[in-house]
Structures are given as C-alpha cells and as structure tokens.
C-alpha cells in the first residue's frame, strides 16, 4: 500500500484540500480492507464488489481534480 499511497499523494496528481483528505481516508480504508481480506480463507463476491467500489471512488477523486 505505501507504493500506491506515494504515487497518488506525492507524485504530481494534484489533489488538494478536501479531496486530498478524502483520498487519504480511502487509502487508509483500502489498507484496512486488504488486511481483513488477507486473513480470510477465500475471496468471495462481496470482496470483489468492495474492491471495485474502492477503485471507482479513487479514480473519481483523482480524475475530477485533473479535469
């Protein structure tokens, strides 16, 4: 997760203010999700749905700043 956090927060993405704070929140939540899933025996449909939701939210924050 540090690689993703570094790329999104410090490598010129240009996310500032409230969007930056929300992106930090999403990345923290994604890290907690990753830890929970890594402890489970299997990955099921709800995990995939949650992962797609994280992806959608992160892309939304990053792409809306660039537009």
In words, what does this structure look like?
- The chain is mainly alpha-helical and about 70 residues long.
- The protein is built from three helices and no strands.
- The chain has helices spanning about 1-10, 15-40, 45-65.
- The protein is elongated.
- The two termini are about 25 Å apart.
- The relative contact order is 0.18.
- The model has no long low-confidence stretch (mean pLDDT about 85).
**Largest sheet properties:** none
Question: How far do the termini sit from each other?
Answer: 26 Å
Strand segment tally:
0
What does the average pLDDT come to?
85
State the share of residues found in helices, binned by percent. over 70%
Uncertain runs are: none
What is the H-and-E element order? HHH
What is the count of helical runs? 3
Mass-distribution shape: elongated
Structural class: mainly alpha
Query: Which band does the percent of strand residues land in?
Result: under 5%
- Rg result: 13 Å
What's the short story on this structure?
With 67 residues, the protein is an all-alpha fold. The chain has 3 helices and no strands.
């Amino acid at each position: 997760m540090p690689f993703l956090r570094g790329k999104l927060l410090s490598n010129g993405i240009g996310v500032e203010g409230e969007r930056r704070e929300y992106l930090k929140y999403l990345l923290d939540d994604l890290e907690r999700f990753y830890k929970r899933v890594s402890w489970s025996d299997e990955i099921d449909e709800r995990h995939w749905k949650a992962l797609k939701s994280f992806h959608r939210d992160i892309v939304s924050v990053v792409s809306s700043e660039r537009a």
